[in-house]
Design brief:
Radius of gyration: 23 Å
Largest sheet: 9 strands, mixed
Helix content: 25-40%
Order of helices and strands: HEHEHEHEEEEEHEHHHEHHEHEHEH
Number of strands: 13
């Protein structure tokens, strides 16, 4: 007897896990189609998480008529990942609960795709790009068009083999066809592109950040976002730190959630969270790029002290990319506040890298009684989303540190929708 097809596997998986009607599986006999995607190398961890939501909801729409599986791109070394050696790649299970993702759409790790597809090969490859001329006459319209590549294409044609070859996630990936596609629009704009050749069972999309959310901040956005639960080992690491240093745990903090994200819909409570202030203090490149919006260490200390005193607390947790010397300066500027920072050991970094450390920071900040973020930081955005999911009030979530700019507006409030 032959091995069961992947379509049969997903049918069985749906039956076992109880997908509660979030998407409708197609007939078992229909062949599975795989969508692979990637993001521009220069984009960071938290922007990539946002792009996942865009692509996940694109696959949700595609799956209404066909059996589509989203292939999760491994996490490589990014700009801020100083402790991750070049050439290191982490599967999604290092950072996220893949089983939770599968309760929204069908997903598979890249390493599993290589096994299922019998190698690093796709039928079609596209790299998205903006229209070189920008908006025509300043008019916005949804469109895409196959055009010459802007910049050096990541796939090169091999005449002797008559295939296209690109290097992705530490593997040499081949494709039967390749083209660059200028696109202007939401994710669903490219559905006709993906569906034009029914014989293509695996399609790669590069520069997926080029397309926009179909519904940013709406219920479909939040369903995909809520499914992105962190890996259990990182949640446990954060819980251990909270208990040891911040007198915090989920029971007394009223931050317990259901085991299934689809069953979690907490009511907002003002007394939710651990007895500390969570602060994301972005330094590094932000000091130069957004100088007027980023506070000096002295001004940051003044704002932290004011917030801690206002809330009648004594502790603060600082998530920051600042060097250790700057953190010590902050400690000296705040003698009346007990400051804490998560410092991963070598074993942790070897297993989970900078990405794991960033997630532990975000979990701890998301469980604080009150959170203060940094201006236009995707790191802060993701924490605010976590706090929305946990049921914190808007007043304790959407706050920011102010720099030297005379105008310091609070961040936009993107409220959760169910």
């Amino acid at each position: 007897m032959g091995s069961p097809s992947i379509a049969a596997f997903f049918t069985l998986f749906i039956a076992i896990s109880g997908l509660k009607g979030e998407f409708c599986p197609r007939e078992e006999e229909e062949a599975v189609r795989y969508l692979l995607y990637d993001v521009n190398y220069g984009e960071g961890f938290n922007l990539r998480r946002d792009v996942y939501v865009r692509i996940a909801n694109l696959v949700r729409k595609l799956s209404q008529d066909h059996n589509w599986v989203l292939v999760l791109p491994p996490w490589g070394r990014f700009y801020h990942w100083f402790n991750t050696p070049p050439g290191t790649f982490f599967p999604w299970k290092s950072f996220f609960d893949v089983g939770s993702l599968q309760k929204w759409i069908r997903v598979i790790e890249f390493e599993d795709f290589l096994k299922e597809a019998h190698g690093p090969n796709v039928n079609s490859a596209y790299v998205l790009q903006h229209f070189e001329e920008g908006w025509t006459d300043g008019k916005w319209e949804e469109k895409y068009e196959e055009r010459p590549c802007i910049g050096r294409p990541i796939f090169q044609y091999k005449d002797e083999e008559r295939i296209w070859v690109g290097h992705l996630w530490g593997s040499q990936v081949t494709s039967q066809t390749f083209s660059c596609v200028s696109v202007q629009g939401h994710a669903s704009t490219i559905i006709p592109l993906l569906m034009k050749d029914a014989s293509s069972r695996s399609i790669y999309i590069g520069r997926a950040e080029t397309i926009l959310h179909d519904e940013y901040g709406g219920k479909w956005y939040w369903k995909a976002r809520r499914s992105m639960r962190f890996a259990t080992h990182l949640q446990n690491e954060a819980a251990k730190f909270r208990a040891a240093h911040l007198a915090s745990d989920d029971v007394q903090d009223v931050t317990q959630v259901e085991s299934d994200w689809r069953d979690t819909k907490p009511q907002r409570k003002s007394d939710r969270g651990g007895p500390y202030v969570g602060v994301h203090l972005r330094r590094n490149d932000f000091v130069q790029a957004r100088g007027k919006e980023v506070p000096s260490l002295k001004k940051a200390a003044q704002q932290i002290k004011h917030t801690v005193k206002k809330l009648n607390l004594t502790s603060a947790f600082i998530a920051t990319d600042a060097p250790h010397e700057e953190f010590l300066q902050l400690v000296n500027l705040l003698p009346s506040v007990s400051l804490h920072r998560f410092v991963p050991d070598k074993d942790f970094l070897q297993q989970w890298g900078d990405g794991g450390a960033a997630i532990v920071d975000q979990i701890i900040c998301s469980h604080a009684r009150y959170f203060v973020g940094s201006y236009e930081s995707t790191f802060s955005f993701r924490i605010q989303e976590e706090r929305e999911i946990l049921g914190f009030t808007e007043e304790t979530t959407f706050n920011r540190l102010c720099g030297s700019s005379s105008k310091c507006e609070q961040p936009a409030k993107w409220r959760i929708m169910y």
